[in-house]
Predict the 3D structure of the following.
Amino acid sequence: MGIATIPLFFWVHHTLGKYFSVALQVKEEHALITSGPYRWVRHPMYTVLLLLMISLFLVSSNWGVGVIFLGISAVIVAGRVGEEEAMMVKKFGNKYRDYKRHTRSLLSTKFFSLIVLLCLIVFVVLWLLSLYVFPLLPINISFF
């Protein structure tokens, strides 16, 4: 699942283009993005981040630390979503309110289906590699 977040992250980043920023900000010339993954969810970058954190939790050797890390990440994302929603309503007004009525915040059925499909593809590729390619390498690599 963690590997599947990489292409999702790049897709979201590419869709945002020049409007991507680590800091919460709405630029003067900012446009409302409703294409790509934004046609299904309003905050796909946060969804991808939470999926990555869940993946790290699942592979963590210390689940106590994993739970704390995942919990802190969820609290941060929840706070940022609220702040970002307020900023977008202030900038775009009714246009953003209408967009909110037609999309989910973090996860929709279609976006979830895409994530599951991507995870299955990654799983099958790794499985095939472990059967046919990794045994040929002079080092021991095993996922299964």
In short: The chain has five helices and no strands.
